[in-house]
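General statements about sequence and structure are easier to judge against a single worked case. In the encoding step, the backbone of a single protein was reduced to a row of integers, each denoting a local shape. The record that follows shows the chain in one-letter code together with its fold in token form.
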Amino acid sequence: MTSARQQRTSARPAARVWSGVTRALACGLGLAGVVFLGMPFIAGAATTQRVVHDTHTGLAINGVDPVAYFTDAAPLVGRPEHEYLYAGVVWRFCNEGNMAAFIANPDVYMPRFGGYDAVAIGRALVLPGNPQLWAIAGDRLYLFYSEDARARFVAKPDEVISVADNKWPALVDTLVN
């Protein structure tokens, strides 16, 4: 276990992150083909976080490697041996290269709006994005709560981003660190 995970888990009992998913799931396997049984998207808990993460494990975007969206055009599960603590949450990566890229410029690879749905933010709502529902626009990663929200974003990304940019400062102040 990396020191970042030890810091996050020392005060709490161990928890299973991927219910129903075997630990053998490795990078290179997209999440699209995996059936999740109880994927930990907790709407109530998410509204108390500046970066969407699992409150039991401390993992950002459910352990998905944020750099893989850019390098592999897919949400790939990161590995426990490649973890980095940033912005109060633990980020996982498929390999050392992806982790190094993130460390060098985390704002490029982190999902915009802390991983919250940009369409919902435009409506003054704070809904956690799903790592399976994503898009890259303007060289930034966006996650979405639903397929409908993703479709709305893809249809008019500049408009959605502009509205969300205006609403986000007031919303982020309501989130607890």
Q: What stands out?
A: Residues 39 and 88 are 21 Å apart (CA to CA). The helical segments are 3-9, 43-46, 68-71, 96-104, 106-109, 118-122, 147-155, 157-172.
